[in-house]
Fold this protein.
Amino acid sequence: MSEFYPIVTVEPEWVLEGEDMGSKEKFWYRETGDTRNCLFKYPRRYTGEHWAEKIAAEVAACLDILHARVELAEFQNVHGSATESFARRGRVLIHGNEILGIMMSDYNPEMKFHQSAHTLGNILAALDNAFTNREDAMRTKQLLAQYLVLDAVIGNTDRHHENWGLLLRKLEGNKWDGFFAPSFDHASSLGRELRDEKRDRLMAEDRVGRYAEKGHGGIYWSVDERRGPSPFELVRRASHAHPDLFQSALAKLDRLDEGSLRRIIDRVPSDWMSPSARKFAMALMCYNLEQLRKLDP
Ligand SMILES: Nc1ncnc2c1ncn2[C@@H]1O[C@H](COP(=O)(O)OP(=O)(O)O)[C@@H](O)[C@H]1O
Ligand SMILES: [Mg+2]
């Protein structure tokens, strides 16, 4: 096995179409002779959104949490990431905002920011209603708990209502068969927006923990909050309120330690991520992991 992650070089003739959802520039492509579509995502300028996507997917794999597969990728000499589509074999992705819009008469699925009705309570209720079988609903809610634990480890502040969903397939007789889509879009994590000087200062002043605790996430705790709690604070509150969902999710943390995190980061090629960015991503995940281990649902 090579020391560094492989880099996919996307050829112009593979390009299929743009993707309108989400905020970043990106397009779908399919490698000649392949049956799978992939989403090439450009990182926003001066950010590490591409390596954040890759590291997050590798952390999810290490935690055994269902996730979209990601590779580092290049298109016309520009660095980015490539996410393999999980919408296959006639399945379509129905996003959280569409699900909540169907389940709640006063939910505005079009809202891009400050959708405070996107609470954990409303999401859990909507998932309960979406499944006729109680076991399927429970399994789905437990998967959501796992995604939230992943978000807390990597500091993903972007779990808004278009960044989770159900994968549905139409059956005969107007029935639908569906399951929770693998976790996707982890670009807003691991301090990817920081400049190296800021990273160095935060680490020198021992402020990585403060940084982790102050980021606001995309899921609210209550509708009257102005902003969502940090991904870590959400898990702190949710694991007390819903131990049946979070116990098994938190138990997955036993699969991660400093050594495995370091190996995941070290496999990013040296010209893709600065030494400061590596040190900071490592410090952030170690802090989050240590705090999460203290939770006792
Ligand atoms: N692995 C995937 N399989 C299928 N659809 C996906 C996958 N990843 C992303 N998408 C679709 O593409 C949209 C944009 O991708 P996303 O990673 O969320 O980009 P952005 O960072 O711009 O929000 C998503 O909202 C979803 O509809
Ligand atoms: Mg998105």
